[in-house]
Specification:
The complex is a heterotrimer of chains A (269), B (228) and C (637). Helices cover 78% and strands 0% of the residues of chain B. Chain B has 228 residues and is mostly helical. Chain B has one domain: Up-down Bundle (3 helical TM bundles of succinate and fumarate reductases), CATH 1.20.1300. The longest helix of chain B has 32 residues. In chain C, strand 6 and strand 7 form a beta hairpin. The chains are: A alpha+beta (269), B mainly alpha (228), C alpha/beta (637).
Chain lengths: 269, 228, 637
Amino acid sequence: MKLTFHIWRQKDAKSPGQMVRYESDNFNEDMSMLEALDVLNEELMNRGELPVAFEHDCREGICGSCGFMINGVAHGPVPATTVCQLTLRHFQDGEELYLEPWRARAFPILKDLVVDRNAFDRVIQAGGYISVSTGSAPDGNAIPIRKENADRAMDYASCIACGACVAACPNASAALFTGAKISHLRQLPQGEPERHERALRMVAQVNAEMFGNCTNIGECAAVCPKEIPLEVIAQMNRDFLAASWAARKQPYQDPAEEKRWQQYDSAHR
Amino acid sequence: MSAASAAAIKDSRLSRFWNATNGKKAVMAVTGLILVGFVIGHMAGNLQIFLGPEKFNAYAAALKALPALLWGARAVLLLSVTLHIWAAIALWQLKNDARPQNYVKRKPIASSYASRTMYWSGPILALFIFYHLLHFTIGAGGTAFDPVDVYSNVIAGFRVWFLSVFYMVAMGLLCLHLYHGIWSMFQSLGFQHPRYTPVLQKAAQAIAVVVFLGFVSVPVAVLAGWVS
Amino acid sequence: MKLESKIPSGPIEQKWDKARFEYKLVNPANKRKFNVIVVGTGLAGGSAAATLGELGYNVKCFCFQDSPRRAHSIAAQGGINAAKNYQNDGDSIYRLFYDTVKGGDFRAREANVYRLASISVNIIDQCVAQGVPFAREYGGLLSNRSFGGAQVSRTFYARGQTGQQLLLGAYQALERQIDAGRVKMFPRTEMLDLIVIDGKARGIVTRDLVTGAIQTHLADAVILGTGGYGNVYYLSTNAKGSNCTAIWRAHKRGAAFGNPCFTQIHPTCIPVSGDYQSKLTLMSESLRNDGRVWVPKVKGDTRPPRQIPEDERDYYLERKYPSFGNLVPRDVASRNSKAVCDEGRGVGPSGLAVYLDFTDAIKRMGEQTIRERYGNLFDMYQRITDENPYEVPMRIYPAIHYTMGGLWVDYNLMSTIPGLFVIGEANFSDHGANRLGASALMQGLSDGYFVIPYSLGNYLASEKLGKVEETAPEVKEALAGITGITNKLLSVRGRRTVDSFHRELGKIMWDECGMSRNAAGLTQAIDRLRALKDEYWQNVNVPGSAGELNQALEKAGRVADFFELGELMCIDALQREESCGGHFREEYQTPEGEAQRDDEKFSHVAAWEYAGAGRSPVLHKEPLNFEYVKPSQRSYK
């Protein structure tokens, strides 16, 4: 099988990049997209050229490491599939494919198709957890949880933080990612006590990271390999609005929230 | 104002609410809701033109008979439009900041045409509204104007074919804007439900189409000579 | 080197309480003065770093991935065992302990396993409190399933993504500590060496994978939770980045390596389809509950499976093991697949696969029921192979999945280097020669949340640890050594890529030190590995430079270590002249072809000491005593 790739090559974060054309007919349709890049890289190295850097690890669609744009679509044309599980049989022999890294101010490019997604970690640091230290937990069955709520929490919790939602959004918004974590934790009684603070702090961090705004258009959910639904964004908005309305304290009275707004102020100076 | 009180305002809950994109979107949703309410009321008023000049002019006179209400409503609308536009501009700037470099290839796969063109339909509508106020409220639109005979103003205005076409195009854009906006409002305010949201989406689309047809019916009727 | 297991005396139920009581405590006000390094952020490392941060230690945490949330624990599917007995079906801590010792084919330490079983119940509580969305019944209580042939339902699960959810729980706890400033996180930073000063682990050498900067980090103790070494086989179900470098380099600094040859093969993976293949995909073992395994009776039968009549099929597991049938343990199922393929009766284009057929189950229960039970697995199979398993039998083949071996640790999870602790899959401790399904997650979290926080405190409180400086000769030597290795790899500029060497290494290991092993094969493999390693250092092509993000260089260092570890695995397998669990020596089998243990000579842990480059490693033995679970021959007939 023959494919022509146009791949974004960029030496490091500071250098400019450009699309470079590569052609090979050593592919076959059972390969995954990443295996195709492996084959291409072997060829490049054997020719004395530098291989294409791309992120990957588990190669079974769960670690969230991999991901790039294929012909303008995050993770390529097959729904609910990461590039590591995308086989070449979904492409035509001789097809031209444009591979580009996720593009967002909050995801600076490190090299070729590799971007820095640590902004996501910082959003989780802001409140994407339940504050329970080891050893202080009651019995697992002490609080019954409606099966439907547990199932929905699982739907939302299946996010792999690959960043496709940000990449696909015309505004580079992280609303689906943030909404997924807020929605997961708010479904559960354990997450209830911190619901308001969580929404305020996580939203503050998302804004400090310079992600764009959500315009509710649904590109994110359409490319999400775990099919996180758009409703998580509404749930995040609900918590944020309720918390903003109900809060008795000003933001600067919550150091964890204020820290984020200060970061926002310096980013938007 | 002292530096300390300026800092206190900047750090206030309200100001941080506005800093958050989610806050701005909520403002856009609430102001959008007010404006949608106005649009529907305006359309209902316009359709009275089909009841004849007396009824229509009486309706216009009735509105003006209560200056407090009229100016109160105008103030709310003006504030809504201002906030709606202000938020939109701020978000548009952020959107450009958030992705400084665009993709070489880009293919939308789920979003509607209406949702992707909100940043286009909005500003054009704003221009339209500006002209529309000059035209029918102030009387500086270039066609015959009589502050008491609103009915004749409309007929005179829409007899000019290119003005009618401009109005109809603007209503098409309004329809597009509402097609996405009315549903999006709910999402921004935190309402989403797998059973109700699809119904809501359909309802929003239906309202958008009804608004379009309602408004467009007037210039069409004038051009066709059904009302004169 | 002396192996002291430091197992507390007394009845097995009281050992852990006794140990905890005897442990010295660190004054709460002093905890922040202790610097602790945690390498790896999977279930073990992540939970340890978070918990130590909560306790107030000053923690530095490292992972080579871009985020701690991507550690390979995330890929575990099936579930986590816990002796909660919520199902009232006769489970107990003692039963979980018993099953684990027996399942490990009597090559694990009883005291460790008992502690694991007793902690298992706390893990579930902790995870529920963190918001892990375990499956629930309509009444709102936790749901359980029976897993991997266990006769009680003690497995807790979150769909087929249990590992993901448990890891995210630990990750979120870790992120909370990072935000609180108690843990400093170093993502995209790989540990390349251990710094040992005055015989104690006092720091690590790392490489920043973005800038290439090689740095040292000093501390009072080092904890390795760096996972298993299944990637020595090149093709495995491990993530591509999973590697042995951290534990191997610690081994070279003096940590004994326990039972390196104990590897687990998982019977239900999607077969290899070509040379380009980069990894193997596991499908949950639960498939064997309803699928029937078969191959054609005659060899070289290339007819499509549907055209092979019933009486020309060999349902070999049902034939050989009438009472367990398709549900025999992982090692038995895997070995039999290999045996029929070796006879030439394998199916599929490569001949290295057997059928897993759901026709009868679909006939009996209807397609809908099968879809509800296995829908996601069937979809995954179809996505990869483009075959519809509702219509055509699946093709499966065993694959390397887990390594029971690892750095030797005592009861306190400390290696033979004082101050170096090893947790999770990276240590050798709890699974013996074979790990039971749904026990890996349990061990990782047990070590990280509930064991290391106590035993580390004891070490820090008992030892007098002087201050160490960056200028110490040991620090400089380690730094120079790593810079040297990096430059050497880059300077070869040979003709073969790292992957081509790794594939060849993996093939040797799989053929000679895989599902079944024999003395001749192992001896020859050792020679071949040495020759290949020599060629590697003469002819490897590592493009690019040291001061940049260079994925080929990262791989090159890891593969260099895999060569040496692979050799040790063969040496260990050669030495262990018995068959037990995942280690099957062809010379030692019963007349029926089953594994034949030799408890007289091999009821011990083989702990290998590194003796220097080019020297034979030195074997130390830790005898295993079974006071509670008496060794017996496993039988599944």
